[in-house]
Amino acid sequence: MITLEGRGLHGGAPARITLVRAPGEVAFEKEGRRLPLSAAVPSGARRSTELSWGPHTVRTTEHLLSAFGGLGIHEGVTIVIEGDEVPLLDGRATAFVDALRELAVAPSPSLLEVVEDAALTHERTTMVFAVAAETRVSVTIDFGDSRISDLAAWWGDPDDYASRVACARTFGFAHEMEALAARGLASHVSPESVVILADDTIHSAGDPFWKAEPASHKLLDLVGDLFVHGGPPRGRVHAIFPGHAATHVLVARALEEGVLAVRPPRSHTSP
After folding, report:
1. How far is C-alpha 29 from the chain's CA centre?
2. pLDDT score of 116
């Protein structure tokens, strides 16, 4: 087992998870209760992905679950969580990737597949699905800022995910940080774990900022949100202006309308 602890991004409270090798699908365990991911009800209403199982909730799951999706680990791990929020750690998925690799759980096939070409829209977000033999997940963003690339893509390779997607930090705009600070939030966030985009400069401590980092972080989030539903799927998914809430709405629609299909899990898992 491997334990990771820090503070939650939004609530700021101490947060702790322990990754444990265990048979069966990926699940959370909270207050002694096992909460299978397939039974979770996702929400993106509070600018992160929150999972609910009746009275039990876990917030800010996207970076952790992105590491699972990027490495292709769909079974064999239980996440024991203390508190209501997954720790922010390095503001990306790298620490979770390192922990999962240390845990040495074998990858397993995605449970999701694109079975029909379609483009679905919810508010300002569009998701384009295409049948394909391989996995490809990509995003388009547009903040009207020439310092930022508009496109990021990943072709399903775990090593490529670990080296090029997992390392993209959480980002925000200076005016957002000022509003959070005024409410007494975000003061606990390490400067190394977030990129701040201001009108006249880009603030980034630690690793140098790169032009595709914001789009790559949106891609990181999308991989995590797709994992909630059993993905990332076999096939191609392109999200234009993605957001947590819209992703969950559109994936649910894609499942209802037969654009996506869930494949049965393997009958036996050896952790």
Report:
1. 19
2. 97
Model pTM score? 0.89
Residue 256 neighbours by CB distance under 10 Å: 9
Q: How far apart are CA 51 and CA 61, in angstroms?
A: 8
Phi, psi dihedrals of residue 83, rounded to the nearest 5°: 100, -175
Give the number of other Cβ atoms within 10 Å of residue 57's Cβ: 17
Q: Bridge-partner residues for 58, per DSSP?
A: 51
The predicted model gives 190-215 an average pLDDT of: 76
Residues 166-180: tens digit of each pLDDT: 999 886 666 666 555
Confirm whether 63 is a catalytic residue: no
Q: How far apart are CA 187 and CA 177, in angstroms?
A: 9
- Starting from the edge strand earliest in sequence, which strands make up the sheet with 27-30, in order? 2-7, 14-25, 75-82, 27-30, 33-36
- Please list, in sequence order, all residues whose beta carbon lies within 8 angstroms of the beta carbon of residue 76, skipping any fewer than 6 positions away: 21, 22, 23, 24, 26, 105, 106, 108, 269, 270, 271
Q: Pick the catalytic residue: 217, 229, 244, 248?
A: 244
Residue tagged 């070409």 (tokens): 117
